[in-house]
Amino acid sequence: MLMAHLKQATRERHAEVEALMPVLDPALTQAAYIRLLRQLLGVVAPLEAQLLELPIPAAFGLEHRLRAPLLVRDLIALSAPTPVWPTRGMPAAPRLSGLGQGLGTLYVLEGSTLGGQVIGRHLRVALDITAEWGGAYFHAHGEGTGAMWRAFGEALNLWEGDAEEVVAGANLTFGAFADALRGVPA
Ligand code: HEM
To answer: Sorted alphabetically, which SUPFAM superfamilies does this protein's record hold (predicted)?
Structure first.
């Protein structure tokens, strides 16, 4: 099954990006959190913009999964400047070559909502961040997260295109997150 293959093929990439996210650090400051949101916006916005140009089947529910607007909402809530993308010093997002790679990207963006549930609870304790105030991106689908993930997995397992293109898109996307998290947005 494609979902199981993806998980196994990207396990090391997940560990890499997880290690680059300061977000479970007990000493996380609001300034560090804002910096993280800006880095995430720099990678999520250009990738989602490309997904909107691809013929993603309706079964994937793309329009319900877009989260760049949540990052913008969080930055505004925290009175932080919202970077106009592209921003100097931000690495360029990869160019997705087609639908297969796009689905790999969506797998990574959507999978990140799972860790977001753990992160969301930590943000409340550490910084008083809530879904309504600064934490909409990590809150993501909230209580609907499990159902959204299962629906995504069912759609992907039924998709009949080239599985290796999906793995390539997922790896490109994890790489883009790693680059963004190492980068220093202006
Ligand atoms: C501190 C940061 C992170 C933590 C603590 C975290 C944690 C988790 C957890 C707990 C799961 C669920 C594992 C399971 O149920 O089997 C998960 C899955 C996943 N995460 Fe993360 N994550 C983090 C960052 C990220 C980021 C930044 C991305 C994307 C760039 C990402 C992408 C994924 C994906 C794609 C899955 C689904 C794996 C599968 O196929 O089951 N995660 N993560």
So the answer is: Heme oxygenase-like
